Amino acid sequence: MSIHRDHVAIVTGGASGIGRATALLLAAEGARVCIVDLDGDAAETVAKEIAAAGGQAFAFAGDCSSPEDNEEMVRRTLDRFGSLQIAYLNAGIARGSSVRGGDLAVWDEVVSVNLRGVYLGMRAVCEPMIEAGSGSIVCTASVAGLRGGRYMPSYYASKHGVVGLVKAAACEFAPHSVRVNAVCPGVIDTPILGPAHGVKQVTDRLGRGHLLGRVGWPEEVAALVSFLASEQAAFITGVAYPVDGGMSASIGGAADPGEGEELHEQFSAGVPKKS
């Protein structure tokens, strides 16, 4: 089913990981796609994949933290395809640091990409949508935008900021029938994991933090993005959706089979019985 037939989409961070998977899916479902990435050659590779499968796409080498690049990606999309219905503002980075001794340059870099980049993307893509009277913006936040954690304060803060920005933009754009939502992935096996990407021993360990006992795949996030961008989600706006294997729903992550029964027995043994 071509749920995005006649739709035009922009995908930032579209050269790899979740962005690439989403660009491929949107194109397979009928959309014409502008693939934006700092790595223009990699974005061009994805555009060629889409063309080889019979779709339409082009690449734009752009920096999401630049106002000029955001405006240019929209201008080129309109020049090429004539309209814009979908924007997936997905580009993001992660850097290790701390609050007490963290490098201010690391803080500034992460916030510039993850939060400023989404803000600038929204400003650029909303205008043609408002003029057309409808549109859908989906942003990548993270389970890190719903809870805290160690060693990446800039990442957690920026992703919390994305969730707040999505809600603010949803309120502002609703009178124009432009919807704004966020997806909040758990640990997804993509290049953002750095040296851990594709290393089974590491991803297996990371997977234990999820109720389902594994890390996610980019295609699983792409499916949710595609739904939120579609007319099937016409009554949904201002929401941050976890796609995290249950990570945000439970303390402690995955359990071994039988562990729940064992814990229940231990707890029950220490509960005083009513006389």
Strand and helix layout:
Layout: E1 8-12, H1 17-28, E2 32-37, H2 40-52, E3 57-61, H3 67-81, E4 86-89, H4 104-132, E5 135-140, H5 153-173, E6 178-185, H6 200-207, H7 218-229, E7 240-243, H8 259-269
Parallel strand pairs: 1-2, 1-4, 2-3, 4-5, 5-6, 6-7
Helix pairs in contact: 1-2, 1-7, 3-4, 4-5
Describe this protein's structure.
The protein is α/β, with parallel strands linked by helices and 275 residues long. It has helices at 17-28, 40-52, 67-81, 104-132, 153-173, 200-207, 218-229, 259-269, and strands at 8-12, 32-37, 57-61, 86-89, 135-140, 178-185, 240-243. Strands 3-2-1-4-5-6-7 form a seven-stranded parallel β-sheet, sandwiched between helices. Helix 1 links the parallel strand 1 and strand 2.
Compact summary:
With 275 residues, this protein is an alpha/beta fold. The protein contains 8 helices and 7 strands. It has a 7-stranded parallel β-sheet with strand order 3-2-1-4-5-6-7, with helices on both faces.
Keywords:
single chain, 275 residues, 7-stranded parallel β-sheet, 14% strand, globular
| Euclidean distance between termini CA atoms | 63 Å
Number of helices: 8
- Broad structural category: alpha/beta
Strand adjacency order, main sheet: 3-2-1-4-5-6-7
pLDDT under 50 segments (min length 5)?
271-275
Level of helix content?
Answer: 40-55%
Q: Roughly what fraction of the amino acids lie in strands?
A: 5-15%
Number of strands: 7
What's the main sheet like? 7 strands, parallel
Radius of gyration: 20 Å
Summed over residues and divided by their number, the pLDDT gives a mean of 90
Succession of helices and strands: EHEHEHEHEHEHHEH
Q: Tell me, what's the shape?
A: globular
